Structures are given as structure tokens and as C-alpha cells.
Amino acid sequence: MKVLQIFSAIVAAVIMLATGSAVSAAPRVNNFVEGVDWKNQVITVTGEGVAPADAVNYTQAKGLASKAAQADAYRKLAEIINGVRVEGETTVEKMLTTQDRVQLRVEATIKGAKIIDETFLSDGGYRVVMQVPLFGVSNSLAGAVLERPTAVEPFPNPVVEVAPSSLPYTSATPIKKRLEVTKVTVEEESYIPAPTTPTTPYRPPLSRMSIPSLDTIILQKMQSSISMPEPTYQTAYNTPTTSQPVRKSVTEYASMAEGNYTGLIVDCRGLELQPVMSPVIMNSNGTKIYGHKNLDIDRVISEGMADYIDDTEHVDRAGTNPLVVKAVGVQNFNSNPVLAVPDSNRVLIENYATKFLKDLKVVFIFD
């Protein structure tokens, strides 16, 4: 009984948790970083709780404090998961408001969070660290929110009007050196996206002197019954109407590959890239060259589409001989890296040879 009185005196000074409320924000504990860790593809939270002062013994006090800490962790997980971006402006929270089936799956994922560390504190409190994987076969957020496409779309062909970029390195060049020497194509250093809606073709103004008289028009009509076609004018985004390049087959594109590349590294440093669960790589013409619709959705859920790395050391996902390109911009709430057309052509050509995009061997370096 004396032990119970001492324990009650200790916990009485702490906020009572009979309703499952949290004590205080937990700091970084045992090297676990709270929040979304894109590098390690996991969401981690620390929950804290205390036992009610009227606990009858140590075992009951510990059990009640543990349940309170878990309830606190579940609440934090829900808050963090709601803010995770699935793609562009679409967050998990937005999906929950429109798709009941996603809401049920997310709730189940939170309830299935794994306890990776727990401690009964000397002041009578309890601390628990819980995790939910962003990707994985079992109980991952990706499994709850990523929708299955009706069909797998093929990767697009290179832009035939633009030559692929020549790479300033070889397979013997160290990866760090590749990141140093890779430059944005000179022609596209200033990234300006193509217009998303058709524009009216430019027509030069007619001067008063060039307008024919009514008599002249009547005479022309009498002399010829053939009406001349109205001249057309090219805009900056029109495809030339003459000398159309001939598209190549997959085998021909693969034969244009310069190296046996094992993966792709997209250098997005300085562009404020925002990590998302379903990123898209685009070219500066607005064409999507890599997205979840091009991939096996089961592998996407299990492995994720890319690694987000803030250094040049942990790029193993791209293999020992990665193709390295520099993004020229970002789109869709800074979530989609944009490549210059020559670089995107190079990526597609090399992918035809070794299929690293299909194998999800993609790394984004950001800061």
C-alpha cells in the first residue's frame, strides 16, 4: 500500500490522462525522427501518456499509461498522414473527403502501426514510438491510397525533332563527378513551359496599301474560279509541316543508347522539389515520361517510385552506373521534375536499352 501511495504522489503532478490526452510534445527520442521521413520511406511519431492517479497497482498504472501513449500516437499519425502529398496538390486528406474506401483503408493502416520502441518513464509516464511505412507489401500508406490504373501505359517515344543530349561522362566516371559535370542543355537553360491551351496562330497585320480595291477583286474572281488557300503561320509550338522526321522503332531507339545504364538520378537541387508518393517526370514540352501509370502498381506500392535523397552518398537505388541528368524546373506544386527535351530524349533512349524506369531505379536529389 505504501508503494501505491508513493506512485500516486508521483503521477498526481502530471496531467491526468483518463480521456487519453497527450502530455507534451515529445522531442527526438532514440534517434527516431518524427514526421515523414522520405529518405527512409517511413512515418514516425512519439506518443506519451500517464496513468490516472487512482490506479490500484503498478501493473495497472503501466497498462493504462501505455494505452494513453498509443492513443496519442494514433492521433499524431492521423494528423501527419492527412498532410502527406500523394501527387501535386492532392493530399491524403483531400482523398479522404471524396473516397470512402480510401478512408477505411487509411484508418486500418493507422490502427496497424508498428510499435518500434516503448519506455515506462520514472515519473510515471509512458512513451511509445510508432511507425507506418510509406511503401511496402504490408500495411503501408501506399497500399491504402494509390489507385490501380485500368491499364499500364507505354513510355512515350523521344521527341523526334530534337537530338538527344550527349553525356559529358562515361561509365568509368564516379557518380559524384557525374553530378558535378552534368549541365543543363544550353538551349533550354531558361525553362518556359509550353502553353496548356491552344493559341491563335499569329497573322501579320495588313496595311491599307495592301488591301485590293473592289474592282480588282471582281476582276480576279472573273479571271480565275480557283480560290487560293489562305496562308498559315507557324507558332513557337507548332510542328513543322515539312521534312517530318521519321519515328524509329523501339529496337532502333535502343541501338542509339550510349551506355549500359542501371538507373536514373535526377538532380533537383536548388528547385525546391517537394516529395510526393506518386511523382511524375516531365519534359519541357509538357510530356510525361515517367509516372505510376507506366509501371506495375504492385511494385510501386511495395518499393515506391523513387528515392528522395539530400546527399550524393545514398544513391544505391540507381545502381552502379546511373544516368545523371539535371532538372530545369518543377511543376504541379513543385512535385514533378522537368527535364530539357534533349535530356528527356536521352533518358527514354537509354531506358529502351536497359529498362531502368520500368524497374523503378530512380533517385531524386533535392535540398
Describe this structure in words.
The chain is α/β, with parallel strands linked by helices and 367 residues long. It has two domains: 2-145, no CATH class; 175-188 and 248-365, no CATH class. The protein is 28% helix and 17% strand. The protein has helices spanning 2-12, 58-82, 92-98, 100-111, 141-145, 175-181, 214-223, 250-255, 297-303, 341-354; strands at 35-37, 42-50, 85-87, 90-91, 114-120, 125-133, 263-267, 281-283, 288-290, 307-309, 322-326, 329-331, 336-339, 362-365. It has a four-stranded antiparallel sheet. Strands 10-14-7-11 form a four-stranded parallel sheet, sandwiched between helices. A hairpin with a 4-residue loop joins strand 12 and strand 13. Helix 3 packs across helix 4 (100-111). The longest helix has 25 residues, at 58-82.
**Given the structure, what is the number of helices?**
10
Dominant shape: elongated
**Spatial separation of the terminal alpha carbons:** 57 Å
Average predicted confidence as pLDDT: 80
* Order of helix and strand elements from N to C terminus: HEEHEEHHEEHHHHEEEHEEEEHE
Q: Can you tell me the number of structural domains?
A: 2
The major sheet is characterized as:
4 strands, antiparallel
Percent helix, as a range, is 25-40%
Question: Over all CA atoms, what is the radius of gyration?
Answer: 30 Å
Q: What is the β-strand count?
A: 14
Uncertain spans = 1-27, 185-190, 195-210, 225-242
Strand order of the largest sheet: 1-2-6-5
How much of the sequence lies in strands comes to 15-25%
**Quaternary structure state of the chains depicted:** single chain
Instruction: Supply the helix-strand structural class.
Output: alpha/beta
